[in-house]
Design a protein that fits this description.
This protein has about 525 residues and is α/β, with parallel strands linked by helices. Helix content is about 40%, strand content about 15%. The strands form four sheets. The protein has a seven-stranded mixed sheet with strand order 3-1-4-5-6-7-8, sandwiched between helices. Helix 8 links the parallel strand 13 and strand 14. About 45% of the residues are buried. Its cofactor is [4Fe-4S] cluster. Keywords: Iron, Iron-sulfur, Metal-binding, Methyltransferase, S-adenosyl-L-methionine, Transferase. InterPro entries: Aldolase_TIM, BchE-like, Cobalamin-bd, Cobalamin-bd_sf, Elp3/MiaA/NifB-like_rSAM, HpnR_B12_rSAM, Methyltransferase_Class_B, rSAM.
Length: about 525
């Protein structure tokens, strides 16, 4: 069976600062290929819609799947599925991915019958079963995680081992187009899957049922050795939760003498608990560390259910700097911010040496704030759910909110990539350009063409073609967490961490419910 796996186009933030290889889609493609199917991958982040139609004409796929990891891509996916159905009436069309898993039936309804089914949960665990069922004419609702307009299959299942499937990297064209910051080009890799914490704004834990599973150090070492790109983005939601696992991978890298430069994301409390792990990783190539600070005051941290004191956060930043790491942090701008709050944030960000990213509070299906946030949505347009648009009422007039937001982002961008910082960045950009890598160089000059209040207001003015389901009437009260999960929670046995780490996780999350 011929399967074409498709990743949708770039979103606002990824048009400038990064472009990551579609690792999840590569894993699905790898799993399908392991079952004997002929698979191709097309990534619309680096190719265009005409390339999609040309590939279909050349490959003539029996099945086409789309990666639906981001809500803002939903309109593009649905439009492509509808047009594909017109041109190929008998093709098997299905969607999987993180965000789609929480809104499966709504997306099916919007497709007007163009999409055969949604595959919820881990696609690499069940794509083989789904293709077999379709090929043999079986009832699709016998497949775990399947949702059709006629019914649902059994609950999604996990892949038995993260060592079982390797990403089909060889199927991805234009590999030199992927980068993050100065890691240009960069490949992506997964060391662990899931997150044992339960932050209110995040759906990683609700997707995976608060599980945490790891790939073996040996398999990771083999994969790193095969990757040609010099830069590596570690996609784990929280890197090195389990210190022994981080050390084991480091030992494997040293043994194989692998020379790479790494970018990872982690929590401040994990960094401070496992200092020795991050110190060792600095020795073997760790360059960037992204810490999800989210807020710069205790009230903000409480809202996002991050039981980390501000003192602890600042201590973590200092430790990361002491390792001579490039530190990036994320802050979440709430629609309630006024001019004074934006100015306070700008001044704070300018006083620290770190790279600061500003996103906007956005309630997503699958997160607790989707259920509990009492503020009503001002829009249900899928395109605007990209953490760069305000979808809840703003204290400032909307245009002024965007002006303050973009002003803040512009100041922070200039701090690291503007003329004042050009002496530091130009040398890097030129060295990359001499190697034929211009992703980073292009990024430096692209900000103003993407981040612009006029463009954001125009996005709001555009009539929505596809709208999200009505948001529940939030009460700011405790939510029944059982209703949020894609993969049901399995408790302690689903987390591959030692008992001390399990205790640490429980002490650093706000909820005590599994």
């Amino acid at each position: 069976m011929r399967l074409l796996a498709v990743h949708p186009s770039s979103l606002m933030y990824t048009k400038v600062f990064l472009r990551l290889e579609p690792l999840g889609l590569e894993l699905v493609a790898g799993a399908a290929r392991n079952k004997g199917h002929d698979v191709q991958i097309l990534d619309l982040q680096v190719e265009k819609h005409p390339d999609y139609w040309q590939r279909i004409e050349e490959f003539r796929p029996h099945a086409i799947c789309f990666s639906g990891n981001y809500l803002a891509n939903v309109p593009e996916i649905i439009d492509l599925c509808k047009e594909t159905r017109k041109r190929l009436p008998n093709v098997f069309l299905f969607i999987g991915g993180h965000s789609i898993s929480f809104i499966a039936r709504d997306v099916l309804a919007l497709s007007d019958g163009a999409i055969n089914c949604v595959l919820k949960g881990e696609g690499d665990a069940t794509v083989g079963l789904l293709l077999e069922a379709w090929e043999q004419g079986k009832d699709l609702t016998t497949v775990p995680g399947v949702v059709t307009m006629d019914g649902d299959g059994p609950p999604p299942i996990f892949i038995e081992s993260l060592d079982e499937v390797r990403p089909a990297r060889d199927l991805l064209r234009h590999r030199r187009k992927y980068f993050i910051g100065t890691l240009d080009p960069a490949a992506s890799i997964e060391f662990a899957r899931g997150c044992p914490w339960d932050c209110t704004f995040c759906s990683a834990w609700t997707f995976y049922g608060r599980s945490y599973r790891t790939a073996s150090a040996k398999v990771i070492g083999e994969e790193l050795q095969e990757i040609k790109e010099p830069g590596i983005f570690i996609v784990d939601d929280v890197a090195f939760v389990h210190a022994e696992h981080g050390m084991a991978i480091a030992d494997e890298i040293k043994r194989r003498n692998i020379q790479k430069e790494y970018y990872l994301e982690t929590r401040a409390d994990v960094l401070m608990r496992n200092k020795e792990v991050f110190a060792v990783w600095k020795e073997i190539g760790l360059s960037y560390i992204f810490i999800g600070l989210e807020a710069v005051d205790a009230e903000g941290l409480k809202r996002f259910r991050k039981r980390v004191s501000m003192d602890r956060n600042f201590e973590a930043l200092e430790y990361a700097r002491s390792l001579d790491l490039i530190v990036a942090i994320n802050l979440i701008a709430d629609p309630s911010w006024d001019r004074e709050r934006f100015e306070v944030i700008r001044q704070w960000c300018l006083e620290i040496p770190d790279i600061v990213n500003i996103s906007v509070t956005t309630p997503y299906p699958g997160t607790e704030i989707w259920e509990s946030e009492s503020r009503k949505l001002t829009t249900r347009d899928y395109r605007l759910f990209d953490i760069q648009h305000a979808v809840m009422p703003t204290t400032l007039p909307l245009r002024e909110f965007y002006e303050e937001l973009v002003k803040t982002q512009q100041i922070l961008n200039n701090k690291h990539l503007g003329w004042s910082a050009i002496k530091d960045t130009l040398g890097i950009a030129l060295r990359l350009a001499l190697r034929g890598q211009t992703n980073f160089l292009t990024m430096i000059w692209k900000f103003n063409s993407v981040f612009n209040p006029d463009l954001q207001m125009a996005d709001h003015a555009q009539k929505p073609e596809y709208e999200m389901p009505l948001k529940p009437q939030g009460t700011d009260q405790q939510v029944d967490r059982k209703t949020l999960y894609v993969h049901g929670p399995a408790g302690r046995k689903s987390r591959k961490i030692d008992d001390d780490t399990e205790k640490f996780v429980d002490e650093t999350r706000m909820s005590t419910v599994d």
